[in-house]
UniProtKB/TrEMBL annotation:
Its EC number is 2.4.99.17. This is S-adenosylmethionine:tRNA ribosyltransferase-isomerase. One of its GO terms (biological process) is tRNA queuosine(34) biosynthetic process. Keywords: Cytoplasm, Glycosyltransferase, Isomerase, Queuosine biosynthesis, S-adenosyl-L-methionine, Transferase. It comes from bioreactor metagenome. GO terms for molecular function: S-adenosylmethionine:tRNA ribosyltransferase-isomerase activity.
Length: 432
């Protein structure tokens, strides 16, 4: 029926070319827009609805910018590593990609950023980084930080619980893909998001750039070469400043409009924006215009050792800051007979990179590629609190600097027998 209506539509606009991808989208948009207009008329005029009205809350194409601009506010949804179903929907087997959003230039929430329409409220009423993704701990800092930078209006994490079972402490159940109620890591993430987004620990960027939408852009959609998705070169601007969309007729004070579908469009951007994008391309790092959010794209800390000679392994770098006050406190504690407990392997690498042969640390900032493995003995750290790490990983080698093989194996045997949670933000072990 839809195809027949489409053929009739082509006749009304006197179009008879073989390339019809964009025209079909234009046709569907026209139908949808008429439907929304009628629904909004009914809700407002007949039942006198006073609530704000929205729609299209699960798509990221610029082809919807025109329709979204007519809604009261824009809402969208996005998950990281949502399960897919190769056989039957919501039935096993489930497929997960197990990728890091940071390694993909913060793809989530970056791909949501252009869908906001400047001048209208913007909310995300469903989002989550799903279990069992190894990198789901990236969620609070990446999503909360960038939502604040973009000055979005509301975030709603899905979901607290799909049933009462999750609220019964005497019932121990495995983690689900979405539920927060029995997921300690996710509950901690909620608090971090609140601090960054609600408390205002990250300020909104003043700089703002809008994708200028024109109706003829819909007809230009051609498939793989132009699928109707916002260009990545544009969405990456959201790692620097605020981005969104505006129609060609609309304007918002302080918002610059550009056409990212045209060659050379970046020339119109502020010099600071182009400098930030250049650094991202060349160094894999980009700082926001506020200076409060910095994204470092790299291999992460779980890269396994794959060489026969451990000493020849190329270690990844991690950025660090050791403030003067912290360095003084550490040195004073050890001078008075106290002990230093490092929470996490990054803390160990930082302190061991900033200390002399006697374990005295000095305030520094920068990046470290230090690779710690036996028989090295830490000089600035006395105890290590850390997760149960992957076999053959550099992290497990670092742990072995604090305890011999037998002690490490004993800890792992105990953890397995006690059904502890392994890997990122699971249960912990303490070594000295």
């Amino acid at each position: 029926m839809i195809r027949n209506r489409f053929e009739e539509y082509l006749k009304t606009i006197q179009y008879d070319e073989p390339q019809r991808n964009g025209l079909f989208i234009e046709f569907l948009n026209n139908l949808q827009e008429k439907s929304i207009d009628e629904q909004m008329r009914f809700l407002r005029d007949e039942i006198k609805l006073k609530a704000l009205i929205t729609d299209f809350n699960h798509l990221t194409q610029y082809t919807l910018a025109g329709i979204r601009s007519k809604l009261d506010f824009v809402d969208n949804h996005q998950y990281w590593d949502h399960p897919s179903f190769p056989a039957k929907r919501w039935d096993y087997p489930f497929v997960f990609r197990n990728q890091s959003t940071i390694s993909l230039d913060a793809n989530n929430p970056r791909s949501l950023m252009p869908t906001r329409v400047f001048g209208k409220p913007f909310t995300v009423t469903e989002f989550n980084f799903c279990v069992p993704n190894t990198w789901r701990v990236e969620c609070p800092s990446v999503f909360g930080g960038y939502a604040a930078l973009q000055d979005w209006d509301g975030l709603y994490r899905f979901a607290w619980s799909h049933g009462r079972y999750g609220m019964q402490p005497e019932v121990r159940r495995p983690l689900s893909q979405f539920d927060i109620v029995n997921n300690v890591q996710a509950q901690m993430a909620e608090r971090i998001i609140w601090m960054l987004f609600m408390r205002g620990d990250v300020k909104a960027a003043r700089e703002a750039v809008a994708f200028e939408f024109r109706p003829e852009m819909v007809r230009e959609v051609r498939g793989s070469s132009n699928s109707g998705q916002y260009p990545a070169e544009f969405s990456r601007l959201g790692l620097w400043g605020r981005i969104g969309s505006l129609t060609e007729q609309a304007s918002v004070p302080g918002v610059q409009k550009v056409d990212p579908l045209k060659d050379g469009w970046q020339a119109a951007l502020p010099a600071a924006a182009n400098a930030a994008m250049k650094r991202l391309a060349e160094a894999g790092s980009v700082a926001s215009a506020t200076g409060e959010v910095t994204l470092h794209v790299g291999p992460g800390t779980f890269k396994p050792v794959s060489v026969a000679d451990v000493a020849s392994h190329k270690m990844h770098t991690e950025r660090f800051v050791l403030p003067e006050a912290t360095a003084r406190l550490i040195n004073a504690t050890r001078a008075n007979g106290g002990r230093i407990v490092a929470v996490g392997t990054t803390t160990v690498r930082t302190l061991e990179s900033c200390c002399d042969e006697h374990g005295v640390v000095t305030a520094q900032s920068g990046a470290t590629d230090i690779f710690l493995y036996p028989p090295y003995r830490p000089r600035a750290v006395d105890l290590l609190l850390t997760n149960f790490h992957l076999p053959k990983s550099t992290l497990l080698m670092l742990v072995s600097c604090f305890a011999d093989r037998e002690k490490v194996l004993a800890a792992y045997h105990y953890a397995i027998a006690s059904r502890m949670r392994f890997y990122s933000y699971g249960d912990c072990m303490l070594f000295q």
